[in-house]
Amino acid sequence: SVMTNKRNEQGHLMIGNIDAVRLAEQYQTPMFAYDVSAIRNKARAFKSAFEQAGVNYEVAYASKAFSCIAMVQLAHEEGLSLDVVSGGELYTAIQAGFPMEKVHFNGNNKSRREIKEALQAGIGCFVVDNFHELELLEEECNNLQTQTNILLRITPGIEGTTHSYISTGGEDSKFGFDLFNGQAEEAVAKSLSIPAIQLQGLHFHIGSQLFETSVLTEAIATLYRHIEHWHTLHGFTPEVINAGGGFGISYTRCDEPLEPQAFVKAIVHSIREESGRCYLPLPEVWIEPGRSIVGEAGTTLYTIGSQKEIEDVRHYVSVDGGMTDNIRPALYGARYEAELANRVKQQDEKTYAIAGKACESGDMLIYNLPLPTVNSGDLLAVFSTGAYGYAMANNYNRLPRPPVVFIENDKHQLVVERESYADLVRNDRPLEKE
Ligand code: LLP
């Protein structure tokens, strides 16, 4: 995490057992470096918490946080299921050889094509978001003469305390069947009546970067008050409750996230209590964490270039990436911590503003970063960039996406190549000649 960065004898930052300066020399900057052991440890922490809680479970890695073939393979190695939200993420999973029965398909506007592809691939379940999807799914099941498992995504009308762009469980949400206005009950009844569809259970996702368990347990209690009625009225018994993802991580020293164990414990305890109260069997408990699996494991390495000091105002230092590889500061006001990776940790002497290289003023990574005096050519490591960094990277200003390198102990491996200029124009077609 942010607090425990290792340094070698030369004072260089270590990622796994590898010197960050060596990585930057070999792969060039900007680049993403993932500590694979950190990813494995998170996956294992979630799983062992479930083992301890003594419940049947699935931990699905939400691949929207960071998807590439190697990452999907790593998730499989760790015994995780996979949450995909698009045909592209599904395709990545197929290319990675991920077992399709462990794939769950989320999303509020799955296309007919995506639904068909997922049915043909034989995915484990769809998390159905709305009535339109239910219709498409029934039609496509009939066309392909197949059946499928589903969970229904329920919107419990509970807000997580997080940025509104990533809060998804409140009453005004584009996601899911609302609990408070009868949509959810109608969806349960409808699903039960469709022969090609097996309603396995229910899903909810309150929001992302949560720092408390109370919103989750509140959602479970609220949900079970309705499940009780649906059991009586429709004979519905959930075999699965999926409590979503959103478990908070540490971006800066100020963040004090709960351990994965604490989230799992609270979720299982609450589901056990509520299902018992309703005289219903304990369902399987599923979760789908993204950020908490990969976020803290990722570090971005940049080279410092130009500087501009405006006396008594700000001292800008520009790096060779920015909002194109990490849009979170510009989009959410997200805060990050960073250090010089190529020097012995020295006394901080100045407060710098770390700017990206894209042509707009909002392309800032960190507004106030205390550092020793920096020189151009210094290597800057920005921490906790493993989730929604590469995943949201873009080609603004026709900047190529950085490469991704996996590091495990003494080994490092390129898992996504740096984009080339040729990649940037690959889909371009020249003007037709008269
Ligand atoms: N399940 C569902 C249904 C979700 O909508 C999400 C995230 C997750 C799981 C995984 O949440 P996580 O464990 O990663 O927090 N781009 C934003 C985050 C958007 C999250 C959207 N949904 C960011 O950079 O903060």
TrEMBL record:
- The UniProt entry annotates the active site at C359
Which SUPFAM superfamilies does this UniProt record tie to the protein?
Answer: Alanine racemase C-terminal domain-like, PLP-binding barrel
Domain of life according to the entry:
Bacteria
Entry binding sites for substrate: R291, R328, Y332, E360, Y388
Its EC number(s):
4.1.1.20
Matches recorded under PROSITE patterns: ODR_DC_2_1, ODR_DC_2_2
EC main class here is: lyase
Picking any one GO biological process from the record gives: lysine biosynthetic process via diaminopimelate
* Pfam families named in the record: Orn_Arg_deC_N (PF02784)
Query: What protein is this chain from?
Result: Diaminopimelate decarboxylase
Q: Which organism is it from?
A: Salicibibacter halophilus
Instruction: Give the organism's phylogenetic lineage.
Output: Bacteria, Bacillati, Bacillota, Bacilli, Bacillales
> What would be the name of the gene that encodes this protein?
lysA
